[in-house]
Amino acid sequence: MHTRHREPQLLGSEATLERMARILAARNIDPADVALPDDPEPYSPLDALLAGMPPRYQAAAADHPMVLAWVGKVTEAAVAPSRGARRQVTTGPSLLMAGVVGAGKTHQAYGAVRALVQSGVGVRWRATTAADLYADLRPRPGIDSERELAAVSRCPLLIIDDLGAAKASEWVEEITYRLINRRYNLMLPTLITTNLAIKDLRSYLGDRVASRLAEMTTRVEFEPLDRRRYRAAA
Q: Which of 60, 80, 105, 146 could disulfide-link to 193, CB 3.0 to 4.6 Å?
């Protein structure tokens, strides 16, 4: 049975107020005796961003100079779909952040998305770990993996966390190439984190993927410090 989706209405809308007035009249209740709540505060772009962000990273703030420089370039590349409309992320450079586990790469990635929204541009984005991405794209009954690959490939901003953490295979190399190549051709900004040293990416991902990443990304090597352990010890 198909259930029709109905958009929620604000309590302060005219249609809702009229409907409530009819209900109160049918029950012989004077509307003046009913205290209505104030209109809710507007739902800001930052609120929308935080609603889709993991709780651990909702307060993430990017402070690495190269990450902030990337935010500036993507913001500059944002365009308005029509005159007077809010500028949207459509194309832009990509960023590859490499470093040991716990170096703060994921924190910086989510902080970068937050900084984009705070700069005033709109962005449709998606975040996934490489392992989850491969699980979603692996062919299986009842799932159109090609359609899912197309959706991920065309997402205006994509975070791929922990590239290189999944077990290497011919299928992993091929699906990674197809995804990266599509985003390379479409010039879509991609934030990638990896625990591998940059010099080791080629042996894991293959020449084709490594070549695309070398051209489309700015590379940032984080200091070899596990900040999670440091904070725990402190």
A: 105
